[in-house]
Amino acid sequence: MEDVVNKLKENYYTIATMESCTGGGVANAITNIPGASEVLRFSAVTYSNEYKIKMGVNAETIDKYSVYSMEVAREMSKAISDFSASDIGVGVTGKMGVLDPANPYGDDNTIYVSIYVKDDDTYHTFKMNTKYEERKKNKDLIIKRIRKELLSILNY
Questions:
Q1: Domain count, the chain
Q2: Which of 57, 87, 92, 125 is a Cys-bridge partner for 13, taking CB atoms 3.0 to 4.6 Å apart?
């Protein structure tokens, strides 16, 4: 993420994340870089619906589309950007092959990512499927893809 942190600094941008299935992995990857405190405003790991809602995701969106949906990822990215007054917000939600009794709906092994850019009020979204049995490998795969998307956005 060194290149992402450097691009954020060059553009005088700040970033915040609201992560579920990645468990703060995106924020961790950013904070592994010296000087990350200049760009990372805030990060929230919102595993539960309750805390996604407290952070600004509409409960009706969760009820209508499931917590595992692009609609929720989009709201996560915008909500965290708004909450932290950051230029970029990253929202990540999805299932990695584990049954979730509180949220029985949504595709297994599908991850939804939204990157919100405040300057032009745009969402850059993608979904991807996990490939591995091991959670850490899937998290690394997702974080790598988010890095690629962030670089694409920051390089215009």
A1: 1
A2: 87
